[in-house]
Write a structure and sequence with these properties.
The chain folds into 2 domains: 435 residues, Up-down Bundle (Amino acid/polyamine transporter I); 165 residues, no CATH class. Strand 5 and strand 6 form a beta hairpin. Helix 1 crosses helix 9, helix 4 crosses helix 10 and helix 6 packs across helix 8. It is built from 24 helices and 8 strands. It has a 6-stranded mixed β-sheet with strand order 5-6-4-3-7-8, sandwiched between helices. The protein is 64% helix and 9% strand. With 643 residues, it is of the alpha/beta class.
Length: 643
């Protein structure tokens, strides 16, 4: 006990000194973090001007001529969507709803679930839905962003129209192929490139406003509301297209842990929001002066001599936006694995200094196939715009709903005060969702289909894992009872330590029972090891290991990891030395049970879901690799289990 207290005290002292260093470093590195957030956090929303105004004004015109009322109404709706959805909801409110500094759908789900009581399963379901929809968004963002950037070539040289799709495919293939190298070096350029991008879109926007200042009336929300009310269904369709301007807002919240609240807020309020506002107003002014510019109002803002440069800069910016979504999918997958929503997959670290920079080959291949399918199917950003928005609005609805739980239960607001804060945001999110649902037939079904696929996989894995655990628990022997029997009638002892991995610390592990049955020997020291997944992003070192003696020769060990961490068993067990267990990996054998699953006649799931769960279990990455256990110290015992 005294040793564990001393470990905790040392950890607290280290944390205090580290905190002091971090405080001093934060003052010197604040602007570096702000620049980094400009590159990573705002890549997606920062490239929305490439297509948002064009698609929204075309929708508002109903296929006819572009009118000044449509232009002013659309720009007004875009500006106030950015103000309410991004500035008020995300930058001011949701960035404060963090889970120990981490944001994102699953981080918020883990936080809300802890305080939800009997509603915990509903909150978990919302988190699964949000995660599934995010993957749908992650497929569309690279496709529509790179396509829209390269379509600027048609403005410069119409004869290059034929090469837009092939060039997009080549860039995307190179982008996904480069993922295994890691983003450490490339990320260094993200901030400066996006800083140049925001300046480059703000300046011509301001110049265009000067040519037709009437567009400044769009700052008045009356014109946006007037257009919606007076145009009926066309107004609702337009609102769905207007939402393209705020796609990427979820990245503000998802990347909270990488940069911190203050740098993200500063970047938005001081640069990103003003630059986007000037560009959208500038495109509106251009369309008031020249309605024919609706072909591509973004690139036509620039003089002909600057258009080639902007095509190249836009391509770089859209690759950065795509990179942010891809790495976000990696992080979300790792969180889902740690929270028990997905089977283990190969996770490779691509940076020695940054734990968050990871590469998942299977996820990378899944995204590449989906993105190329979208590019080759739709072939233009305008066609793909019909598929965009539904997944993002769905994720926003989920996030806002879970935020209500956090404001109520975690912030300890009254339910009425929490509802007063969250309801306006939820109403707006539902309005956007309803507007985007009109695009289901035109292509909106695609992100919904991908989202439904991921949702089905997550639900099946979670349900199947629970049923399997309940079934094995009924068949297993209580650990305390077995230890008592072995101490009364001890078998032959062999030197060394045996570590038995199990998800149920109170039952005798299957590998232990089979070892006794077939070998009829027992090690001098035996450890029943259980790995727990915390609902916090990270677990401090003093809370990593917990020891519980079970008899004279058995020890129950618990290792806790957060959902943003990759479990490393040997490194965690090294901490146990400070708690009294003399752990030596070279004299330790790890016993794992490898289960061969068969569908049962009577099951808690439909037959198709049984088969899906079994396929997922077979595809799961080997526990030895996932937990970083040396392969030379592992003994696997096979068993057959029906489910």
């Amino acid at each position: 006990m005294s040793e564990s207290i001393s470990v905790a005290g040392a950890a607290q002292a280290h944390a205090a000194s580290h905190g002091a260093e971090a405080h001093n470093g934060s003052r010197t590195g604040f602007w570096a973090l702000t620049l980094g957030s400009i590159g990573v956090v705002y890549g997606d929303i920062g490239t929305s001007p490439l297509y948002a105004v064009r698609e929204a004004v075309v929708a508002a015109s109903g296929g006819g001529a572009v009118t000044s009322d449509a232009v002013v109404g659309v720009i007004s709706l875009i500006l106030w969507s950015l103000t309410i959805v991004v500035t008020l909801k995300y930058v001011i409110v949701l960035l404060h709803a963090d889970n120990n500094g981490e944001g994102g759908t699953l981080a918020l789900m883990a936080l809300a679930r802890r305080v939800s009581g009997r509603w915990a399963e509903i909150v978990a379901g919302l988190g699964i839905v949000g995660a599934g929809l995010f993957f749908g968004d992650a497929l569309i963002t690279p496709a529509i962003s790179v396509l829209s950037a390269l379509e600027g070539i048609k403005v410069v040289t119409p004869s290059f129209d034929y090469y837009v799709v092939p060039t997009t495919v080549i860039i995307l293939l190179l982008l996904f192929a480069a993922q295994s190298w890691g983003t450490a070096r490339v990320a260094t350029f993200f901030g400066p490139v996006m800083l140049i991008w925001f300046i480059a879109i703000a300046v011509p926007g301001a110049v265009s406003i000067i040519t037709d200042p009437w567009i400044l009336t769009a700052i008045n929300p009356f014109y946006g509301l007037k257009f919606l009310v007076s145009h009926g269904v066309i107004g609702l369709v337009t609102l769905g297209a207007v939402f393209l301007a705020v796609t990427g807002a979820e990245a503000l919240y998802a990347d909270l842990g990488h940069f911190g609240r203050a740098p993200i807020q500063t970047a938005w309020l001081s640069l990103v929001f003003p630059a986007l506002g000037l560009n959208y107003l500038g495109q509106g002014a251009l369309l008031l002066e020249n309605p024919q510019a609706i072909e591509n109002p973004f690139f036509l803002l620039y003089p002909s001599w600057a258009q080639w440069g902007m095509v190249l800069l836009a391509t770089a910016a859209t690759v950065i936006a795509s990179q942010a979504v891809i790495t976000g999918a990696y992080s979300l997958t790792r969180q889902a694995i740690q929270l028990g929503l997905l089977p283990r997959v190969d996770i490779r670290h691509t940076s020695e200094s940054r734990e968050g920079q990871i590469y998942l080959p299977r996820v990378n291949m899944f995204l590449l196939i989906g993105v190329l399918f979208l590019v080759l199917s739709f072939r233009s950003s305008s066609a793909l715009g019909s598929a965009y928005g539904i997944a993002v609005t769905g994720t926003m609805v989920v996030t806002t709903t879970m935020a209500f739980v956090v404001v109520w239960k975690v912030w300890h607001w009254s339910p009425f005060a929490a509802a007063a804060l969250i309801t306006p945001f939820l109403f707006l999110d539902l309005t956007f969702l309803g507007a985007n649902l009109l695009k289901v037939v035109e292509g909106g079904w695609i992100p919904l289909a991908f989202g439904a696929l991921v949702l089905t996989i997550m639900y099946t894995w979670r349900r199947g894992t629970k049923l399997l655990m309940e079934k094995t628990r009924r068949l297993e022997t209580p650990l305390d009872q077995l230890v008592g029997m072995l101490e009364r009638k001890p078998p032959i002892r062999v030197p060394g330590t045996a570590v038995f991995l199990t998800s149920d610390p109170h039952s005798a592990p299957t590998a232990l029972m089979h070892s006794l049955k077939h070998y009829k020997v027992l090690h001098e020291k035996n450890v029943v090891l259980t790995i727990e997944n915390a609902h916090t992003p990270r677990v401090p070192p003093e809370e990593r290991v917990r020891l519980e003696p079970v008899g004279a020769t058995f020890l129950r060990v618990f290792l806790r990891f957060g959902f943003m961490e990759t479990p490393n068993v040997p490194r965690a067990l090294a901490i146990a030395r400070q708690l009294g267990w003399q752990f030596d990996i070279m004299s330790t054998s790890f016993f794992l049970s490898r289960r061969s699953l068969k569908p049962a006649v009577q099951s808690g799931m439909p037959r198709w879901q049984d088969r899906l769960f079994i396929a997922l279990a077979r595809s799961a990455n080997d526990a030895t690799d996932y937990f970083h256990i040396p392969t030379g110290r592992v003994v696997e015992v096979g068993t057959q289990v029906t489910i």
